[in-house]
Every structure is written in C-alpha cells, then in structure tokens.
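Sequence design from tokenized structure. All designs in this work follow the same two-part layout: the structure record, then the generated sequence. An example of the structure record is given first.
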C-alpha cells in the first residue's frame, strides 16, 4: 500500500478511514496528536483548521507517497482552499466521507469542494458501511506516481 497522510477537519472521518484501511476495529477516537499506523499517517483536524499548523502537514507529507484530503459530506463548514493541493509536492487525492448518512446534494457539494482544492481522483466512501472502500483500497494498492519534476535533470 502507498504510504499516505490523511488531512481533514475535526470529526471528518480520518481516524475511521485509518482504522478501516489498517484492518483495525472501528471505534470513535479523537486524534490528539499525529499517529502512524503501518503506512498511514493520521493527523489531528486542528492541523487543517488552524492555518499556523498547516506547514507541519506539508513537512509530514514529504515522508509519504500520497496526500489524501478528507471531506465530511454532512458538514457545512469547509476548510480546504481553492488550489490548496498545490502546496504539496506529492499527488493529492480526495475522499468524501460519511456517504451513508449524507444526501446526494451534500455529496456533490463535498466533491466540488475537493475538486476546487485540486484533489484528483476523488472517492466517495463510508468506512462505516464499507461503501466505496474497495475502489479507494485498489487505488492505494497501485504503485505511487512519480512526483512532478522527478524526470528532470
């Protein structure tokens, strides 16, 4: 599996995704500090919500193959800025979470936000029910893409 970092606001589902991807028991747990499980870095939501910590996310991401922006479809607060993926030197994908309890409009809105942030591809999932997780898991099992500019001399 690619080494990944999960970035998103508080309670958007990063830890549940982490637990699912690492075959752990799904249970609610507030992430208080950066935690590493196998090839997964789970970050506290405060790192995205407080712009003063954003550079820490950028630094931590350099140890990974893939950045994952995580957006809860049921929330009306958005923390990702247009083009925010450009702050990372790695590929950035997006994950719309909580699709099992969101309506279609909420899922569309979350997807559009991740598109504006520059995430590609975008997955719609529920780690609670497993919906959409097969496609995400398959994506994470693929070989990492080369970084832009790696071919240059």
């Amino acid at each position: 599996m690619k080494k990944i970092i999960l970035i998103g606001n508080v309670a958007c589902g990063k830890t549940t995704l982490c637990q699912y991807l690492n075959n752990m028991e799904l249970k609610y747990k507030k992430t208080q500090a950066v935690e590493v499980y196998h090839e997964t870095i789970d970050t506290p939501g405060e790192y995205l919500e407080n712009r003063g910590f954003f550079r820490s996310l950028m630094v931590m991401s350099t140890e990974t193959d893939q950045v994952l922006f995580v957006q809860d479809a049921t929330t009306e607060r958005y923390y990702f800025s247009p083009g925010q993926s450009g702050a990372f030197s790695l590929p950035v994908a997006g994950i719309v979470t909580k699709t099992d309890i969101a309506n279609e409009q909420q899922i569309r809105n979350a997807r559009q936000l991740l598109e504006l942030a520059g995430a590609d591809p975008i997955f719609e999932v529920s780690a609670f029910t497993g919906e959409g997780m097969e496609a995400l898991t398959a994506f994470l099992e693929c070989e990492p893409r080369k970084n832009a500019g790696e071919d240059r001399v």
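The CA atoms of residues 36 and 42 lie 6 Å apart. We note this feature because it recurs in several other targets discussed in the main text.
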